[in-house]
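Q: My labmate handed me this sequence with no annotations at all. I'd like to see what the chain might look like in three dimensions before we decide whether it's worth expressing. Could you predict it?
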Amino acid sequence: MALAHPERRRQLANTPNTELKGGLKSRHLTMMSIAGVIGAALFVGSGKQIALAGPAVILAYIGGGILVILAMRMLGEMAVAQPDTGSFSTYADRAIGRWAGFTIGWLYWYFWALLMGWEAYVAGQILHGWFPMVPAWGYALLVTVSLLIVNFLNVRNYGEFEFWFALIKVVAIVLFLVMGSLALAHLWPWGAANGWDHLTSQGFMPNGPKAVVVALLGVMFAFIGAEIVTVAAAESADPGREIIKTTRSVVWRICLFYVGSIFIVVCLVPYNAPGLTQPTQGTYNVALDALGIPHAQLIVNFIVLTSVCSCFNSALYTASRMLYSLARRGDAHRVMQITGRKTGTPYVGVIISSLFAFAAVWMMATSKMDVYDVLMQATGTIALFVYLAIAFSQLRMRQRLQARGVRLEFRMWLFPWLTYAVIVCIIAALVTMVIEGTYRNEVVYTSILAGVIVAMGIVAQVFGIGARARGEAELAPAGAE
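A: Here is what I predict for the chain of 481 residues:
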């Protein structure tokens, strides 16, 4: 029998590890949840929505924020019951069907994997502007490789990097809110921006209600990222407690950071200020100029650089965990669930998820980024598809659990009416996008992509590719009474 022990040890050594080790702390998740919805879309991209709708853009941000708050509440209910690194993809699989989990999981992976390339491009352009001796693609490659290394390490390293990236963004917004509030109260000593003049001087809704609706459709894309914390919480010591805490805090995060900062901007800056729609300036740059802050462009570029690195870091983490979850469920090749023995990181998923970023670097070097822009259009309405999947999953899962008499620790408000309201609003938004036309291509391209993925999922299911045992027990929450 003694001879069997070395052989057994060799077999264990040759067996791939497929378990995540975890290691995210509460402060990591807290900061990730705060900064999850803060990206370059707030610092720069929001200027286009302000120019479109005028000061009434505040209504668009409030509307989009309400949708995200409700979606996060529904997701929180499911995530507290069953913490899983696949999050809403896993819940769609269990509540709606394998095809739904397969489709939304791969759509979500495509979104984050493709977004990494765009974030690397922006980071490369900013760094090249500061230090032109190296081409932009060289900086993009440096950022990609550096953050790839971070994600190869234990998840604690990702948490630490994201903590400090997020802290910079949060401090920047808080300082802006303080300075803007002083200016609104006529207490700011520098610059020409004081008071509330621009909120109504040119009309609160200068371009009419249609412009506000179009802005609302654009604003919905800005909030994606809030759901990342439900993915990350599965690698923490107490997933349920962390999800409840962060899901409840999403209300004040959106109100303070998005609605609050946009409100200050439209009060201090005329909605038709030329810089708002210029990619080299953007929302915060124009506002800081109005406040008389020196070197506003440099400050904003630093904040945006931090934001895109943070977004890249989160995107790589989220995409790799989604691949891991898909592989565990048999909806991706099993090699993608292999994790490092010491780190517990799904390094194969990390490598595969970074391929679009390296493709973007190559396109930058060969002046072919226009091709990447076309690929990005297919991500345009993935956020709405994700929210729709969350709503349908929560509706069906809650109904089944209620039929069993299961008591849930964390619940969606006014079920099922608010869930139905979210479903109706999202479908109405998608229809409006097609009819109105501004975002028609995004809806069409994303729908085509979703259709292709659905077809792939059906083929995989029919031929038993990656088949796995399933059962109604999967719908029972952990520790349910």
